[in-house]
## 1
Amino acid sequence: MGIDGFTAAGKTSFGHELAEWIGAAGRPVLRATLDDFKKPWRDRHLYDRESGEGYYRNAYDYEAVKRLLLDPCRSSGATVCALCNVDPLTQRDHSSEVTPLGADTVLIMDGVFAFRPEINEYWDFRVWLRVDAELSVQRGAARDQNWAGSEAESIHRNRYLVAERIYLQEVDPLPMMDVVIDNSVFAHPQVVTP
């Protein structure tokens, strides 16, 4: 299952809550985030990762997420997978740390750009968390104040939001959704028609 939506739409929290609910129903669940499959900082000189377009086109290592996680989850013979390639904060390589994978395991992965053509075919169920673009910027800036400081709002408005608009224009993911949830108010998510 893939969970997507603008930055700070609540994808990670929603994924954790859904995993807890599915696990309580008796199914084994794996939780992953696309953020754990970003390209390493050491390689950022090779591509533009500062602009919105650069972020959209270059930030994520889709080959790694397929090789380490999505392909094993699709393979009937796979018994392990990796939930992280390179930690986005510490830059520590976790690609050799594997997690057991059962035949009935449900993978729930969240992340912006989850339905790009490079990985879209892997999802059996697609969720879009809808929030207004301005709310996304404000939530993201508040959340990232500790590491981005006074640049937090600018990063969200001029890089992340620009990237997300390119994604919406090029991929048009909303018609692919199995469910769209308005997550403008965290305590009161509302299912809306996809």
Note: The beta strands are 2-5, 29-33, 80-81, 99-100, 106-110, 126-130, 179-182, 190-192.
## 2
Amino acid sequence: MSPPLCLGGSVPDVVELTKALIGAESITPARGSVFDVLEQVLLPLGFRVERFVEGEAPDGPVENLLAVRGSGGPHFAFAGHLDVVPPGEGWTSGAFAPEIRGDLLYGRGAVDMKGAIAAFVAAAAEVPERGTTSLIITGDEEGPATFGTPKLIERIAERGLVPDCCVVGEPTSAHRLGDTIKIGRRGSTVIDIAVIGRQGHVAYPHLADNPVPRLVRALAEIDAIVLDEGNAWFQPSNIEVIDLAVGNKATNVIPGRAAARISIRFNDQQRGPELIERIRAVVARHAPHAEVHGRVYGEAFLTEPGPLSELVSGAIRDVLGVDAELSTTGGTSDARFLSRICPVVEFGLLNATMHKLDEAVALADLRALTDVYAEILRRV
């Protein structure tokens, strides 16, 4: 093992490990060196590490890692992702050249979510082995996730390693470390609509078939839909038109095709396939021969407040002195997949700089998160 990752032998230093993970460029979908870094630090801690690559282009190939220590119950799992979004231009220092300036560590993935993975590994090194501890780590959470966590879940089932509960290390904290635990997330679906007409001269409309008015009428009806009013844990579901395209550069031509894309973020009162069919029916009333294709990126899920959220919130309270809010806000995460096999909540670093230029984590927060994760492991 590379000496800078550790203090006092095989105990990982959370800051140095975070730096090493950031330094291994891993734009989604990720493979290779970043997994080498993680495996290198897990093996001396007694974890059995299994790495495998799944899928082909365009959604793959994707590398995944399943690490297991111990046996029997209770079985606690930590889940996360090593892939990151593209850094963009304009960083003060290199996005994949981790740098400490003052009290902050800068680099892509510092909070989303290489810092949390490092914190959990450091916590696992502190806590005596009891039952089973596993890490469920993918290289494709920021992308389509086709060959990421869903394939890990298949592997977990094959190995008979379904955990009793799971914490996902997403950056959930809003204003200070520990203020928010995510117990659910809304679902997401994207629907593409294409209305096909017949191109022609604007002076001879009877010889053409303009698809634009039919698409506009369909979108107006879709925009007027109120899916629900929300509930105790979720805000109302919403439909948004996010793209509209005709591509007609001429001034005297009726176009032959008009297209739109809509995105629906929905709560646990809705289901993705049913929403797609509902939109398809609306479009068919205005354009019977239109093409409508939808993809469900994740269903809504809720882990009702109970033993797992109490476990995590209790650890936060005792370590940080913070009373965490239980929330379902924000976008999707891989917890949407893991919720199918066990209770799952999300808890991690501050999310203020995730996906931004000069993404950064406070050094004190890395160490404090390590302490919270260690306390969770002691309480399982």
Note: The CA atoms of residues 219 and 241 lie 8 Å apart.
